[in-house]
């Protein structure tokens, strides 16, 4: 063995050794998992947060990731879904905090069912005078979801740009 092979180890031996080490770690982890039942994590073992003393409600929080700010002025139509079609409940405009001024559902209006928020992103970017390729990609973005337990608070964070959107159920 010469000194050069010590300074610059053979790449193939290094790669094979790395694969073997990684494979051994995976095998030992799966063996450990099969012998010890895993306890569910906190997120898996509990449902959404029930805020005691605060009435359950449906709220939204909408962020414009293109401009890196709350989607101030975005029009959102809120509807229930009946027989597969949206039935308008109300329209809201997003405030400087990225939220509607009032919860979308609260008190007696907070009922089980299927719902939709429709974001008018094309109108929003036109209002902001955003320089975007034409024609635009997204126009109206529907987000459909369901309320199944009216004892739980649902918060719906939504992020969007001219080309994509994402949302999840918060609490």
Automatic annotation (TrEMBL):
Statement: the UniProt record of this protein carries the keyword Chaperone: no
| A Pfam family hit | Transthyretin
Tell me where in this chain the Transthyretin/hydroxyisourate hydrolase domain is found.
58-170
What the entry lists under SUPFAM superfamilies is as follows: Transthyretin (synonym: prealbumin) (SSF49472)
* Database matches in Gene3D superfamilies: Transthyretin/hydroxyisourate hydrolase domain
What are the recorded GO MF terms, alphabetically?
A: hydrolase activity
| Keyword Nucleotide-binding among UniProt keywords | no
**One of the GO BP terms on file:** purine nucleobase metabolic process
Keyword vocabulary terms for this entry: Hydrolase, Signal
Report the InterPro entries cross-referenced here: TAT_signal, Transthyretin/HIU_hydrolase_d, Transthyretin/HIU_hydrolase_sf
Position of the signal peptide: 1-33
Q: Which domain of life is it from?
A: Bacteria
Its name, as the record gives it, is: 5-hydroxyisourate hydrolase
Q: Which organism is it from?
A: Noviherbaspirillum denitrificans
**Could you read off the lineage of the organism from its UniProt record?**
Bacteria, Pseudomonadati, Pseudomonadota, Betaproteobacteria, Burkholderiales
